[in-house]
Amino acid sequence: MCDVYASVHVFMEEKLFLRAVKGGKNTKIITLNGKKMTKIPSTIGNLPGLKVLNLQKNLVSKVCSELSTLTQLTVLNLGNNLLEEVPEEVKYLTSLKNLHLFGNRINRFASGACDGLKNLILLNLNNNQLTYIPKEVSRLESLIYLTINHNQLTSIPRELCFLKNLSELQLNYNQLICIPEEIKFLKRLRKLFLARNNIEVLPEVLCHLTNLRILDIAGNVIQIFPTGFQHLKLKEFYCEGNPLFLKEPVSAVKQLDVLSLQEITSRFVMNELTERNPFLMEAIEWYPEVWDIISKGRKCAICGKSFLGIWIECVEFVSPSKNWKISRNLTLVPLRTLICSYQCFNLRGPNQFGIARVQSSEKLI
Predict the structure, then answer these.
(1) Are the C-beta atoms of 93 and 73 separated by less than 8 Å?
(2) Rounded-to-integer distance, Cα 3 and Cα 273, Å
(3) Does the pLDDT at position 358 exceed 90?
(4) Cα(225)–Cα(190) distance, rounded to whole angstroms?
């Protein structure tokens, strides 16, 4: 009885498809959403001129090999099906611009799936089971919109940050704990959505994204923002649900640290190089290991001089830009600042506080 039912069902699928393709080679669009189809009929290979294929809300678990012949296809929607991988066949769809694979069971990319998608502009992988993004994603050189919300990603590959045309990146509701430094290469990024992850720190290079207009980091574990964050030209900024530092200082005993010989020497060299000391500028070329050390130096938020080791980490509270549409109740933005000495610490402004770590809790002093 089951075999009879299956045969009837396959016959009905074929009949539906044949009715949809009655235009023959001139058929440009096929839409068969919600038809309980379990497969894509092989007869699709008879439609070389097809531009749009919508098969959303069906029961397709695998695509047929004939799909690879649709080299004129620009839109493929296989959302809300039963796929378990981004199929290899899509790499042959060289004209494809929009690929919708949301609401499946995708946990991997088939080998080579990204190879031929040179014209892809939009990729939607929302509501799947991805735990990683392959390095080959960098081959999607035309990609503008990438959305992978509600998956299980734990990291962002540095290769994703080489998508020079990327304008919108959505990674809400994943398991991310950090953002790679290479994000600075996404010069055209305008919208970045990272809500409901486990991110602890925003990299300083995030402040280099001069075209960023919308940033959503709500529901992470961020306490403080990088220096220069207040200068981002955002239009919308959402950060509710983070344990941000509050302007609630406590008293503590502050002691003068004794600097190491390496720290004293490094500070001297870095500050002399800032003054373009000709002797040191020539000598440093012969000591690449020294250059490697001092290249990690920072500038004091008070005196502006360079230093190597962090004497004290501080937080400065500034008002959010009036141009930002912001989260409710966000009145002050806590910014990370570094101070080189106890002397400079005593010269800090009224909105700057040192961060003390006492018994695994963090307090302001």
Answers:
(1) yes
(2) 81
(3) no
(4) 19
Phi, psi of 75 (to 5 degrees): -130, 125
- C-alpha angle 95/97/101, rounded to 5°? 115
Which one-letter amino acid corresponds to residue 99?
Answer: L
26: β partners: none
For the stretch 33-73, pLDDT in tens is: 999 999 999 889 889 899 999 999 999 999 999 999 999 99
Give residue 357's pLDDT band: very low, low, confident or very high (50, 70, 90).
Answer: low
Tell me: the pLDDT tens digits for 163-209? 999 999 999 999 999 999 999 999 999 999 999 999 999 999 999 99
Q: Are 281 and 232 in contact (CB under 8 A)?
A: no
Tokens encoding 226: 């990088």
Q: How far apart are CA 114 and CA 140, in angstroms?
A: 7
Nearest CA-CA partner of 59 in 88, 89, 79, 87: 79
> How open is the CA angle 89-9-80, to the nearest 5 degrees?
45
pLDDT for 21 equals 61
Write the CA distances from 289 to 122, 191, 259, 296, integer angstroms: 44, 39, 21, 12
